[in-house]
Design goal:
It is built from three helices and no strands. The chain is mainly α and 101 residues long. It has one domain.
Length: 101
């Protein structure tokens, strides 16, 4: 075996090791979950927090409205308003006046 082949064999394993380590390091920095993706995660987190706050507000409004419709303590005015709006029921002696928004 010549000296050149011996040198190549000795350098092969460190070269393969460096290639593998370089691949992992590249993914750690520029991969989909790497260091460069953190900025995107922070933007997504801020957007999701805004969406969560909006949905929690809607949930509270729906919870309040459902509490008003509880049969044990229903608000008669609220029930009357919902029946008139959703079902279109009107008494014979009433006139409906619609307001444009």
């Amino acid at each position: 075996m010549s000296q050149a082949q011996s040198l190549i064999r000795r350098a092969m394993w460190p070269a393969v090791s460096l290639l593998i380590i370089g691949t992992f390091a590249g993914h750690a920095v520029a991969g989909p979950n790497g260091l460069l993706a953190w900025g995107g995660y922070h933007r997504d987190l801020a957007a999701k927090q805004q969406q969560l706050a909006k949905l929690e507000g809607e949930r509270q409004a729906l919870k309040h409205r459902s509490a008003l419709l509880d049969p044990r303590k229903a608000d008669p005015d609220m029930a009357d308003e919902l029946v008139r709006k959703d079902l279109g029921l009107v008494r014979p002696d009433e006139v409906i006046v619609t307001l444009e928004d």
